[in-house]
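It is worth pausing here to work through a concrete case rather than discussing structure prediction in the abstract. The textbook approach is simple: state the sequence, then state the predicted structure, then interpret. We follow exactly that order.
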Amino acid sequence: MEAIVLYPVPAMGHLISMVELGKLILTHHPSFTINILITTPPFNTGCTAQYITDVSSTTPSITFHHLPTISLLLSSYATIEALTFELLQLNNPNVHRALQSISQTCTVRTLIIDGFCTPAVAVATELNIPTYYFYTSGASSLASFLYFPIIHENTTESFKDLNRLLYIPGIPPIPSSDMPQPLLDRSTKGHSPIAC
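Step two, the predicted structure:
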């Protein structure tokens, strides 16, 4: 049996998008199984439990794997996004174990990750599993996120301190202070791995 593993950010909108991707894959390739890794964050992400139950009963080819809970203190992080980035980084050992477990009964053909689950690339590389990003935001947002590592490499300042226009290929110039809040301060605990 062949499997595709999907790994979304722990938020309802991201989970729904990944499930819909899984359903689309099954429409075109019904012989695959879809395995979705679920991270349990220390904050409310919406009514995911009922949604997962509903999907499990209507689409048996989609299986959900709940990763072990990682305890993090909410007050230690400036934003929920910073906490989420840290959680996803700390979750790598759990992702590794889940992929190994799935591999015992299926051949894992690929890992498809949410645009924010970048830390999992190292795990998939170690296990020789091809990895693809699933990015549901607009093209301008994607252009920015793809260019962030170049900006990050060429300056030691945070976006909040640059105080200039950023020239990112594919989009009009944008003030550095208009970058998404979780990316403004590179010294913040849990700073986005996308910009690194």
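Step three, interpretation. The longest strand covers residues 107-114. Residues 151 and 195 are 8 Å apart (CA to CA).
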